[in-house]
Specification:
Elements (H helix, E strand, L loop, with lengths): L17 H17 L4 H25 L1 H20 L5 H69 L24 H4 L9 H14 L1 H6 L8
Length: 224
């Protein structure tokens, strides 16, 4: 059985490509005819999505390594100036706040891209399940017709009355689920800001400019 290959290369911006929709529908039709439940396809999509999200975050961190290094270096400077030398360096603090703000903006954009991939995976599963449900229903109808014809043939051969057609069973419905992305993708955009020095520098920033501004990482870039 083929593996799902559509995450993330066949996904556009928060939508599926036509090829992905076609492939999901074809697979749903095939599995519905064969009586294969949708859970297998959902698990494949979940694995593919998890790998895509891990790759997306890894590439983001690698691409922005210099930026986060600046944030960490400036954090060490802020802590040294305020906690050890007891000096006020507002320009350095503002510069640090600006870099944190930019970092959080970039992280937010990456998070949105990750959530878009998750939305695409959900859309793909929905296309698969729609095709699966149609194919499963048609397969059940054909099976009931064959069973009825066979029962009527046996009754005719024995000279017995033809049996009443049985009540149709409730149609099978698809039930695959892809777990939502974890808090890395839905929480605050504070990736790589959990080191002790960075947390202390952010606390100093909050004390100097207020909680709301510090949360946004606001600040003018200074020279000292």
């Amino acid at each position: 059985m083929s593996e799902v290959k559509s995450v993330p290369t066949d996904y556009g911006r928060s939508r599926l490509t036509a090829r992905t929709r076609w492939r999901a529908a074809r697979r749903g039709k095939r599995d519905g005819r064969a009586g294969i439940g949708p859970e297998h396809y959902a698990r494949q999509l979940e694995r593919g999505l998890r790998m895509a999200l891990e790759d997306l975050r890894s590439r983001f961190v690698t691409r922005n390594a210099a930026h986060i290094d600046r944030v960490h270096a400036e954090s060490a400077r802020i802590v040294t100036e305020y906690d050890h030398r007891r000096e006020d360096v507002p320009a350095a603090l503002a510069r640090f706040g600006g870099w944190v703000s930019q970092w959080r903006t970039e992280v937010t954009a990456c998070q949105q891209r990750g959530l878009a991939l998750a939305a695409c995976a959900d859309q793909e599963l929905a296309h698969y399940e729609a095709a699966w449900t149609r194919a499963r229903h048609r397969a059940e109808v054909r099976a009931r017709r064959r069973a009825r014809r066979e029962a009527e043939r046996r009754a005719d051969a024995r000279g017995e009355p033809r049996p009443e057609p049985p009540e149709p069973p409730d149609p099978d419905t698809a039930g695959g689920v892809i777990p939502a992305p974890d808090g890395i993708w839905t929480g605050a955009p504070d990736w790589m800001l959990d080191e002790a020095l960075v947390r202390r520098a952010l606390h100093i920033l909050e004390q100097r400019i207020g909680p709301a501004a510090a949360a946004a990482g606001r600040g003018e870039r200074g020279t000292r």
